[in-house]
Write a structure and sequence with these properties.
By secondary structure, this protein is an all-beta fold. The chain starts with 7 loop residues before the first strand and ends in an 8-residue tail after the last strand. 34% of the residues are buried.
Length: 384
């Protein structure tokens, strides 16, 4: 462990120290310098400090046993340097703290077992560097609005096992678009001397004005919005326009069909192959080369009222409320209950419906497709 009195880890401090297995950084450390743990092939996990602001270039490059990096604890982290985790083949997932503004070039290149990169909608990220996720097997990326995506950031130079990748740009403000946002080859592939087209990339977009800016496809597509670039950038891409919709956390994007977005005060009515959303919604897997549009309808206002419940006489049996103890308007959905017992001036949650004598209260929870409606009960429900 590097203690709390240490503020900086010097350049190359433990580089090549193959016997090192675990590292815990003290709270005072703000910087991990270049090459600090490079080539520590036995390093399995590292605990980062809350005050850490930067991880230097090649800091963990070649740490082939590194399976756990707790970046989420480094809430002040702003910079992940060039090739910082390149070649960390045991790494399976990484959570990028919201304060991070830059993921350096080749930062996670060659992390062949990386399957999850968690970037939140609250992220302050502005740059994903060139080659940052080359040959990544990650099936889903959230890309925050306004991020500059460097050359070959999501490039495939070797054939991947996973040939379906989703990029969520649904939260983009299209005013942030310009010709330098997505650099050349950032969503392309080329290996073995051939421009392969087996990889299908699905892009969830706020509107279809984003499409011309995306350099998608084979390596022959150098840049976007270039009059000299006549390559077909739709051949292996699916575009899904959410029309203001976004996605719930932990949405499953691995299914063959398009994912279901959510939108406040709206009900999702399906994906359509035309911008006006007329006709029938699509019920089959999307086809590469097509653009799909989300259709929305106004969600009916729902209310829930907990009906009056008579005082109960203690008989040693569990007392549970039922759905018919509630009145619901405007929607349908399951109803569940949460019980609390009064303890002095406090209310304590119970794991189940009450059995013993006492003063209790209950909340009825109405589960609709996208939200809950809570209505607390009033007064004393059960007493001796």
């Amino acid at each position: 462990m590097l203690g709390d009195g240490v503020t900086n880890v010097p350049d190359g401090l433990l580089s090549g120290f193959e016997a090192l297995e675990t590292v815990s950084l003290g709270k005072g450390i703000t910087t991990i310098a270049d090459n600090t743990f490079k080539g520590c092939t036995s390093l399995k996990s590292i605990e980062l400090s809350e005050g850490l602001t930067s991880i230097g270039n090649h800091a963990f490059n070649g740490c082939t046993s590194l399976a756990a990096v707790h970046l989420e604890k480094a809430t002040a982290l702003k910079t992940i340097g060039r090739s910082a985790f390149e070649g960390c083949t045991a790494l399976t997932e990484i959570e990028i703290p919201d304060a991070v503004t830059e993921i350096g070039g080749n930062a996670f290149k060659g992390c062949s077992n990386l399957i999850k990169v968690d970037i939140s909608p609250n992220s302050k990220l502005t740059t994903i560097g060139s080659g940052a996720f080359v040959n990544s097997e990650v099936p889903y990326f959230y890309i925050p609005s306004g991020v500059t995506v460097g050359q070959q950031a999501f490039f495939f130079s070797a054939e991947p096992t996973n040939k379906k990748v989703t990029y969520d740009l649904s939260g983009w403000d299209t005013k942030n678009l310009n010709t330098s946002v997505f650099e050349k080859w950032c969503f392309s592939q080329f290996w073995g001397g051939t421009n392969y087209r087996e990889i299908t990339r699905t892009f969830y977009l706020p509107d279809d004005t984003v499409v011309p800016y995306l350099p998608v496809g084979t390596s022959s597509i150098y840049t976007a919005v270039n009059p000299k670039d006549t390559a077909d950038r739709t051949r292996n891409a699916v575009y899904a326009v959410t029309n203001g919709g976004t996605f719930a956390k932990n949405m499953d994007f691995t299914a063959d069909t398009l994912a279901t977005p959510i939108k406040k005060n709206n009900k999702f009515l399906g994906w359509y192959e035309n911008k006006d959303c007329v006709g029938s919604p699509v019920s089959t897997a999307p086809t590469a080369g097509k653009t799909y549009y989300a259709k929305w309808g106004e969600k009916a206002h729902s209310t829930i009222t907990l009906n009056s419940v008579d005082n109960k006489t203690y008989d040693g049996k569990q007392i549970e409320l039922k759905a018919d103890n509630c009145t619901v308007t405007g929607s349908t959905g399951a109803i569940t209950f949460v019980y609390q017992q009064k303890d002095g001036d406090q209310w304590t949650d119970l794991d189940a419906a009450p059995v013993y004598v006492g003063e209790y209260r209950v909340k009825a929870i109405h589960h609709t497709r996208c939200h809950r409606i809570w209505k607390p009960s009033k007064g004393r429900l059960w007493q001796k």
